[in-house]
Design brief:
The chain is α/β, with parallel strands linked by helices. It is about 20% helix and about 25% strand. Helix 3 runs parallel beside helix 5. The two termini are about 25 Å apart. About 40% of the residues are buried.
Length: about 500
């Protein structure tokens, strides 16, 4: 059943922010140092281009015989146990993993979980002894810093740069002080090329609230990120700073166009969405950008390893053609977290063993064929053709309902291109996104009635509202709204 279009008009206002933190420090010529820096929209090392080909690697801190050590998560080893049972053997396993990663063509690591902290009033670090325990971060900085130093030393030996995912302090003085001391401690360590202060605020900021109850405003997010930027400028001025953004609907609250990050690192996965999100970020966010996380899960059954390999080639080509600065793959080895889209996204399975090229390390698991492609990617010659995909305005292919509208600038009455529209059903269980075209017009397709809406655009205000449209069938045989097919279809 297809229903008539209902046209509505929405008005947004430009938000103006002032951010002059860069003037607070005396800049040095980073091209004469070993730090990674930005020039225009791309990374550089000394005077050479640097394209982060980055692998996400999850770690935990362990206590073994009263010594603390950093190690890959259990899933990265014998799946249910840690392989190393002494500090030295645990670091040997880690070194073998990182050497194998380097051999596949990666030049950087995104370190995930090193400071697995809850952000409550008394932040605590989760660690293993071998069971999971917690200790307050206050008074234990040196334990955490020593463990991070262990990882950085191995990465430096292998010429791997590191982006460190933090628990960005929002309203927590204890976590703020820890972050400050961490930045200060490693401010001269050029192995660290960037800090990622928050992972996917769309999902993890106010995560305990329903989507319709979240209260973060763009102004509030700007204030938080400005404080983080101040921490960087004062304590780690030669390293870079980002946030792990996700879908374009981040623009509703954590608007990447106004937040004072050095570059944008966004996460995108589903192949129906990925080309569209690359296109949107490249066209409407005027900052250097890279993909911080992506993958196609493959178990060589439901999805073949060949398809995963092809996904890598296609996404890499689009990144460089659209002016992207880097690619991050999720992640090192298959896990058992309970969802197909999580469990099989890696470069290494749990079948057989793999030996490093020098024969020093034997890693449990076999490399997937996707690894054959990473080192070859650098040979691709960009075409600079960054086109709009055919499903840009209807990513999942909904067919039941069509709602149209137009978004304009309140002050100039001009159309706003690239605005993002999100619709939700009554129960907040199914949603979809679309965008405005060059005339400010959007077309929202759905298979079920959307009644909750949110609209915004880069550097513009946001609107939240409920709206019940009166739809009319365009076919002779009218089907009741509740009987429309595929109403629970979503892109999961």
């Amino acid at each position: 059943m297809k229903l008539k279009k209902i046209s509505i008009l929405f008005i947004l206002v430009t938000i103006l922010f002032s951010c002059n933190q860069e003037d607070k420090i005396e800049k040095i010529d980073l091209s004469k140092t070993d730090f990674i820096y930005l020039e225009g929209k791309h990374f550089k090392h000394k005077l050479n281009n640097y394209f982060p080909l980055m692998l996400n690697y999850c770690v935990r801190i362990r206590e073994i015989n009263n010594e603390f050590v950093i190690a890959g998560i259990k899933d990265y080893e014998d799946k249910n146990i840690f392989e190393g049972n002494t500090k030295d053997s645990a670091l040997t396993v880690l070194r073998g993993h990182l050497q194998l990663i380097k051999e596949q063509g990666f030049n950087s690591i995104r370190l995930v979980g090193f400071n697995k902290i809850n952000s409550e009033e008394s932040p605590q670090l989760s660690y293993f002894t071998p069971k999971s325990k917690k200790m307050p971060i206050e008074g234990n900085y040196e334990i955490m810093f020593e463990c991070l130093s262990q990882f950085l030393e191995i990465a430096n030996d292998l010429d791997l740069r590191v982006m460190i995912l933090l628990n960005g302090p929002v309203e927590n003085p204890k976590l703020t002080n820890f972050t400050k001391e961490l930045l200060k401690k490693f401010q001269n360590n050029s192995t660290i090329f960037a800090y990622d202060f928050m992972n996917e605020p769309l999902y993890f900021d106010n995560k305990d609230l329903k989507p319709g109850e979240r209260v973060r405003t763009k102004e509030s997010a700007f204030e938080i990120v400005s404080l983080w930027k101040d921490l960087m400028l004062e304590n780690a001025p030669n390293q870079l700073f980002t946030i792990g953004f996700s879908e374009p609907i981040e623009v509703f609250e954590w608007d990447p166009a106004i937040l004072p990050v050095d570059f944008v690192a966004f996460h995108t996965y589903h192949p129906l969405r990925v080309p569209n999100e690359i296109y949107w970020y490249s066209k409407y966010i005027d900052k250097p950008w890279m993909i911080g996380e992506t993958s196609l899960p493959a178990d060589n059954d439901s999805i073949s390893y060949k398809e995963q390999q092809q996904y890598l080639y296609e996404i890499y080509k689009q990144i460089v053609n659209c002016g992207g600065a880097g690619l991050g793959w999720w992640s090192f080895q298959d896990v058992s977290w309970g969802g197909f889209e999580h469990d099989y996204t890696s470069i290494l399975n749990h079948v057989g063993t793999t030996t490093t090229k020098d024969g020093k390390y034997i890693i449990k698991g076999s490399l997937k064929p996707v690894c054959e492609g990473f080192d070859k990617l650098k040979n691709y010659t960009p075409t600079n053709e960054c086109g709009c995909a055919i499903n840009y305005y209807n990513m999942v292919g909904y067919q039941n309902i069509v709602l149209t509208g137009k978004i304009v600038n309140e002050k100039t009455n001009t159309p706003i291109e690239g605005a993002v529209i999100r619709g939700w059903n009554k129960y907040w269980s199914v949603g979809a996104n679309t965008f405005t075209d060059s005339l400010g017009v959007f077309t929202m397709y759905s298979n079920t009635e959307f009644v909750h809406f949110e609209i915004s655009a880069p550097k513009m205000t946001q609107i939240k509202f409920d709206y019940h449209a009166e739809y009319t069938s365009i076919e002779e045989n009218t089907i009741a709204m509740g009987d429309l097919p595929n109403q629970k279809l979503e892109y999961h």
